[in-house]
Amino acid sequence: MNVETERKYLIKFPDLAYLRMLDGCRILEMRQTYLERLPDAPQTERRVRTITENGVTSYVYTQKSPRAYLSRFEDEREVTREEYECLRKDAHSELVKTRYAFPFAGHVMEIDVYPPEIGGEVFDGYAILEVEMNDPDEAVEFPEFLEIVREVTDDRRYHNKTLAKKLK
């Protein structure tokens, strides 16, 4: 089981054409399906997702449970399409997004762009930047071409699970 430590930032909507041209930029089309919690693990969040990159789709099952501030235990594994479809029977919400992931200053910057139906005051002209870190106090350097509005790590309105519930 891994430990995930990440911060999230609301950013001005980036220049997608510029992102596509960055060295090492990966473009991932994702469908995240959030699953009902298990009775014996009510703190553990579960999801399955499809990740399509360059026309190839993979299926991933993830469990996350609290650990400490900004950190969670994360257990993630690839599953077959059949397992994915079976797990989706426990779905309670779902969202799609496009992720632009690229290396910068020792981190991987992940910019999530959501469809217009999420919209509203939360994403009109904005996107989310996620940065995974080794330590919660680690300094993060941002590319000059990104305009950071504010950190939203602790703001539930910007959590993917919350956004998925808006689309139900």
Description of the molecule:
The chain is mainly beta. The chain has one domain: Hypothetical Protein Pfu-838710-001. It is built from four helices and nine strands. The chain has helices at 16-21, 81-87, 120-123, 160-166; strands spanning 2-12, 26-35, 45-53, 56-68, 71-79, 91-104, 107-113, 126-132, 148-151. Strands 1-5-4-3-2-6-7-8 form an eight-stranded antiparallel beta barrel. A hairpin with a 2-residue loop joins strand 6 (91-104) and strand 7 (107-113).
At CATH level 3, the topology is Hypothetical Protein Pfu-838710-001
Q: Classify the helix fraction into a percent range.
A: 10-25%
Number of helices: 4
- CATH top level label: Mainly Beta
Q: Beta-sheet strand percentage?
A: over 45%
Number of domains: 1
What do the pLDDT scores average to? 90
Strand order of the largest sheet: 1-5-4-3-2-6-7-8
